[in-house]
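Hi R.,

As promised on Friday, here is the backbone we talked about, encoded as structure tokens. Could you run it through your design pipeline when you get a chance and send me back a sequence?
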């Protein structure tokens, strides 16, 4: 006489249970995952009301001339605050360049009330011609950042 808990008596129920589990897994639909979508970056025009015109070498390479066009004067107003000190970062060297402040003219940047459709400037000193054409730079004015610009 066999005992009720012998391995042979347990095999059939375990096999049936395993078949049910496998069948249940195979028929269950795979969960649909939403693709990870990063929020679209906000353009400088949308956030700051300006369009970058370009950044070029000037004064025989001793200065960099950053030009930008105002589209929305209200959004662009923080770029014109005189107390805010703009600077430029050369991405290659990490050097930080500032706007010169000659005694007779004052800072070499626009700081009057901005007008829509008008192009404005900022000059950055480039003593020693550290930044060269083709370098990538970031212009910073307070919270404003125009990143990865190519110097022409």
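Update: got your reply. Pasting your designed sequence below so it's all in one thread:
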């Amino acid at each position: 006489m066999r005992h009720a808990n012998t391995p042979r008596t347990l095999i059939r129920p375990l096999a049936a249970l395993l078949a049910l589990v496998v069948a249940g897994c195979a028929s269950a639909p795979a969960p649909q995952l939403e693709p990870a979508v990063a929020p679209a970056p906000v353009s400088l025009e949308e956030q700051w009301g300006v369009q970058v015109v370009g950044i070029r070498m000037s004064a025989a390479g001793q200065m960099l001339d950053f030009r930008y066009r105002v589209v929305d004067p209200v959004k662009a107003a923080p770029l014109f605050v005189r107390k805010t000190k703009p600077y430029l970062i050369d991405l290659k060297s990490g050097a930080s360049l500032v706007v010169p402040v000659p005694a007779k003219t004052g800072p070499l940047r626009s700081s009057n009330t901005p007008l829509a459709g008008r192009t404005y400037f900022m000059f950055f000193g480039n003593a020693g011609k550290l930044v060269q054409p083709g370098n990538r730079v970031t212009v910073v004015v307070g919270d404003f950042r125009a990143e990865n610009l190519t110097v022409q």
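One thing I noticed while checking it: DSSP finds three helices and seven strands in the chain.

Thanks again,
M.
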